[in-house]
Amino acid sequence: MPLTRSKSFPTTDATPENGGSDREKLASGRSVAGILYKWTNYGKGWRSRWFLLRDGILSYSKIRRPENVNQLSPSDDVRLIGDISTDRFSRMNSCSGRGRRKHHKTVGIVHLKQVSSYRESKSDNRKFYIFTATKTLHLRTDSRSDRAAWLQALASTRGVLPLQSLSGDFSFISPKDLSISTERLKKRLREEGINESLVKECEEIVDSEFSEAQEQIKLLHEERTKLLDSLKQLEMANLEAEASGIHDSVYQLPNHKYSSLRRGKYSECSTSASSDDKQEFEDISEEDGPSFHDTKEYFSEPDVGSGHIPFKRRTRLPEPAEKERGVSLWSMIKDNVGKDLTRVCLPVYFNEPISSLQKCFEDLEYSYLLDQAYEYGKSGNSLRRALYVAAFAVSGYASTEGRHCKPFNPLLGETYEADFPEKGIRFFSEKVSHHPTVIACHCEGKGWKFWGDTNLRSKFWGRSIQLEPVGVLTLEFDDGETFQWSKVTTTIYNILLGKLYCDHHGTMQIRGNRQYSCTLKFKEQSILDRNPHQVNGVVEDVSGKKAAKLYGKWDDSLYYVAGDGLNKASASLLWKPTKPPPNVTRYNLTSFAITLNELTPGLEEKLPPTDSRLRPDQRHLENGEYEKANEEKQRLERRQRMSRKIQESGWRPRWFEPQGESESYKYTGGYWEAREERSWDDCPNIFGEFTEEIPDCA
Description:
Blueprint: H1 19-27, E1 31-41, E2 45-54, E3 57-62, H2 66-69, E4 78-81, H3 86-96, E5 106-111, E6 116-120, E7 127-131, E8 136-140, H4 144-155, E9 160-162, H5 183-191, H6 196-244, H7 329-333, E10 351-355, H8 356-362, H9 368-378, H10 382-395, E11 406-408, E12 415-420, E13 425-433, E14 438-444, E15 448-460, E16 464-470, E17 473-477, E18 482-485, E19 489-493, E20 501-512, E21 516-522, E22 534-541, E23 546-553, E24 557-562, E25 572-575, H11 591-594, H12 616-622, H13 626-648, E26 656-658, E27 665-667, H14 671-677
């Protein structure tokens, strides 16, 4: 029915009963319009827009007031989807908080016939996506039936491909399947009395024209095949990202003839503000020109249903506010030879701007290895699960290469949380004991949990520093299979003279409770060793039979060979570290480590007062405010010296508890629930001002 101006617009939902007639009407040129929620960016989130699909072109505009919405003439035949009432428009306009009254203006246009596809969301029955060569639209309806109606409209638009799952059918007609028959033409010519030579000549002309057309179709077929391959890759990336709740990469099609299309501003997910200072993160028309600048990073839709709001994590530390001054090493070390470094008060210049609590989380940088181990175990491949667990145990050492500064020693009761929805993990750690120094951690992933506690014993021998971790790390999968291991010894050499370097050496036993266990040997580097950082290992079943061998380097890669032999020609790669960051810091932090101490937007008010990111000396060091950092470190060191008396007076960890006589700690739960409610009444402000009096902890 024609669209008319009225108090309440008529609506039509897609149902099995009317689906066929609607499809026929759409195919004959009928338009579709309605209100959809469009993901704009992380500053604004979802915003309602007026969408119109007509003649293969999808346009959308902002909603200001009902009289401005109708850009169609009364004679237009438009099918409206969803609740299109004047009351709803009024509510949307009042929620926008804008007092300005703008005229109706189209802010986005997508030519759906130009290499476009669509896909429904697997996690939300109201969401769907439209992919083009230059952008991705993330859209949401009010109901499942509304989404079905929009998808039906898209399916009726000629040239738009439904993007199925990876096992779906991407086939279409091939040039070799095209054929032409000239029998009717020859028969008609003979009926007209045309001689046979002229009939044959006409047949040759038709065949020649068809051959040229077939050649052009062949070229188009090859081009379309390439584009569909690219769409398959996009589908894979979107499915992986949807599983983790966020897309963390920009999807670009390979070079093809459509690359000459003008690229629009990727305003849906760009973290950059528009040039309009009064309206940051504004929607930008696809016709506004190029904006894929080298310095920008683009993100796709977050998993809003999970409660996580992803963001762009930083790629560099702040520029130093001061010029760093040198310190005399000899004056610091001559009186501390043989002492425990945790009891030595070193100036802040020897620290890197993260704490030992955050350092624990660095071991989870390659948590995807545990995700893969979980999947292999689900499919019954227990050997591959054990191999990927071994790769994970090795991967935690990769970040130590070139890291010559020590992390901050946490205060008693200091905590650290890490919520990484893009990795599908949540991590929490707490300093649970000051003497001995013990840090406990707990992490939840996709089908697995990881926890442990570490008592790091350190000795300083003048030429070197030796670090011996004491504690057990436990990995438990949802199906009950567990693996346990302890870390190997770390030594830092050439403290006084020569090039500073670290090495990890010793034997790591990864004990499984089912079919397989693993032994890894970290070879100690010698003075003349030209092939350092070597790791070799073997996976054995419960009978002691060797099922696979591993070899590689803890800072480079890890491979495995099935069976008892070691034929490197048949080796398979298990793990390889990520590339160094483009913005190298003086601390040689990895790209992952650079993000650990970041206070992302809106995070500070959610954190307990005990979180490492709120520690002032560490924050000043990160900002390059060295004098302030030293002053705060000395102030907090005085509190640190009180920790033993505080602990002896009855202090207990807030989030972990000791497990009997094993001297190990386990997470008691409740942290993330308290975070949700902002309930930190029992978490003291350990970084604030304090007195020398010992608080009553009984």
